[in-house]
Specification:
By secondary structure, the protein is an alpha/beta fold. The chain is 41% helix and 19% strand. Strand 6 (182-185) and strand 7 (190-193) form a beta hairpin.
C-alpha cells in the first residue's frame, strides 16, 4: 500500500460497495477522489451516482459521467462478434468485453486531471480485477493501482454496512443484510452470480432473470426478422439502418420477448476457481446466429475453418483481460480481413428461446446452386474426377491397412 497517492480516479457505480470504497480512499489515503461512471447501457439512471458522489464530498469538476454505449458496441462488441467469440463453448463474454473500455476511460481521465492512481471495486477472487488492471498497465505502465478488496479488512456485508453507517453513507433498504445475488449489466448482457446461485445443483430462481421472458411465457407464434450485414457488422433490422448501440438494443427487445439468450454456466475463472453464473444475452445470441449465417455463404472453407480454430484463443484473451495485448490485435487484424465480403442479409425465426436461421443471401455468395444440385447443372463437374481425389486421400490409410494385414494385426 502506497500512501503517496494524491489523486485517484475511481470506477464508480454509485452503489453501496463503490460508495464505501470512495470514503475508504479518502480516509485511508487522504487523497482527492475523482469518480468515473460509465453508461454502457446497464439500464439504470446514472444521475443518482452524481448526487451520491456530491453527497460524499466530491466536487462537480471531479465527477465524470459518460455515455459510452455507441463506442462500446462499435469498437468492442462488434469486433468481438466478427470473431464469433464464445468462451468455453457457451459464454458470449458480456462482462469481459466491457472492462477494457472502462479501463481506457479511467486512464484518459487520470491523464486529464493529473491523477497518479486509479481504483476499482472488483474483489480479490474474481476475473475483473485482472481485466481492469491489465488494461491500466497496458495503457499507462507507471500508474498506481488501488484495489481496496485486496487491502482493507472489511470481509463481510455486515462490516461494509457498519462502515457505511459510521461514515454516514446512505444505504438503500434492500441493501441491508445479505444480497441474494449480485448483478452486472450492460447493453450486451446481464450477469448474476453469488448467494442463491452458488450451488450449481439448484435451478436458477425465476426472480433472478431481468432481461428475458422464460421460453414458456414467450408468444406461441414466431417472430421473423431480417438482419443486414456490411463487412461483418450488423447495420440494419428489417431494412431499417441503425447505429450499433440502437441495433443491439432492438435485438435485445426482440430476444427478450421471445425468451432468447439465457445461459446457466459453471465456468473456469482465470484466477483458478470454478464459478456458477447466470447470463442473459438476448440480442447477442441472435447476432451470433445471424453472423454465422452470413459467413456460411460468404467465407471460403479455408478461411472459415481457420477462424473457428482461432476463435477459442481470441475468446480466452478477451475473457482473461488481454484486450490490449499484441496477440489479440494480431488476431483481430486477421479476423477483420476475413470480413471483407461478409455482406448480405440473414433471415431468422425467433421462437420460444430459439433464434432459428431460415435464410441468407449475399451478392458475394460463394454458394453455387448449379454446382451442388443433384440435377445436371450448367457448371462442368465430372463425377469421375472424384475417384482420383478419393484414392489420393486414401493412400496413407491403405498403406496402414496393408501393414496391419502383413503383420496379422
Amino acid at each position: 500500500m502506497s500512501k503517496d497517492v494524491k489523486k485517484v480516479v475511481l470506477a464508480y457505480s454509485g452503489g453501496l460497495d463503490t460508495s464505501i470504497i470512495l470514503k475508504w480512499l479518502q480516509t485511508t489515503y487522504g487523497c482527492e477522489v475523482v469518480t468515473f461512471t460509465a453508461d454502457l447501457g446497464q439500464g439504470e439512471e446514472l444521475e443518482p451516482a452524481r448526487k451520491k458522489a456530491q453527497l460524499l464530498g466530491i466536487k462537480d469538476e471531479n465527477i465524470f459521467i459518460e455515455d459510452l454505449r455507441e463506442e462500446f458496441v462499435r469498437d468492442y462488441v462488434f469486433p468481438m462478434f466478427r470473431a464469433n467469440a464464445v468462451y468455453e463453448g457457451q459464454y458470449l463474454l458480456g462482462t469481459s468485453i466491457a472492462r477494457p473500455l472502462i479501463a481506457k476511460k479511467q486512464i484518459e481521465i487520470a491523464e486529464k486531471v493529473g491523477a497518479d492512481a486509479v481504483s476499482h471495486g472488483a474483489t480479490g477472487k474474481g476475473n475483473d480485477q485482472v481485466r481492469f488492471e491489465l488494461g491500466y498497465y497496458a495503457l499507462k505502465p507507471d500508474i498506481t493501482i488501488i484495489a481496496p478488496w485486496r487491502e482493507w479488512d472489511l470481509r463481510s456485508r455486515e462490516q461494509l454496512i457498519a462502515f457505511a453507517e459510521k461514515n454516514q453513507i446512505p444505504i438503500a433498504k434492500d441493501k441491508r443484510g445479505e444480497a441474494p445475488f449480485s448483478v452486472d449489466a450492460n447493453l450486451l448482457h446481464a450477469s448474476s452470480e453469488g448467494k442463491v446461485l452458488e450451488d450449481p445443483a439448484n435451478e436458477v430462481p425465476d426472480y433472478v432473470y431481468s432481461r428475458t421472458l422464460s421460453p414458456e411465457q414467450a408468444p406461441d407464434t414466431p417472430t421473423v426478422i431480417t438482419i443486414d450485414f456490411e463487412k461483418g457488422d450488423a447495420v440494419a433490422i428489417d431494412g431499417k439502418k441503425m447505429s450499433p448501440a440502437t441495433l443491439l438494443a432492438n435485438l435485445n427487445e426482440l430476444g427478450k420477448a421471445n425468451g432468447i439468450g439465457r445461459l446457466d454456466l459453471v465456468e473456469n475463472r482465470f484466477v483458478g476457481m470454478k464459478s456458477r453464473g447466470m447470463y442473459e444475452t438476448p440480442g447477442g445470441t441472435i447476432l451470433l446466429q445471424a453472423h454465422r449465417g452470413i459467413e456460411q455463404i460468404t467465407l471460403d472453407r479455408g478461411a472459415a475453418h481457420l477462424k473457428d480454430e482461432l476463435m477459442p484463443k481470441y475468446a480466452e484473451l478477451v475473457y482473461n483481460g488481454f484486450w490490449f495485448s499484441p496477440e489479440r490485435e494480431m488476431l483481430q487484424a486477421a479476423i477483420d480481413l476475413s470480413q471483407q465480403y461478409v455482406t448480405g442479409s440473414v433471415r431468422l425465426k425467433l421462437y420460444k428461446g430459439n433464434a432459428i436461421l431460415i435464410g441468407r443471401e449475399s451478392k458475394y455468395s460463394l454458394y453455387d446452386q448449379d454446382l451442388v444440385t443433384f440435377e445436371e447443372g450448367a457448371v462442368a463437374y465430372d463425377h469421375r474426377d472424384a475417384a482420383g481425389f478419393i484414392k489420393l486421400n486414401a493412400l496413407r490409410l491403405r498403406t496402414l491397412g496393408q501393414r496391419k494385414k502383413k503383420l496379422g494385426l
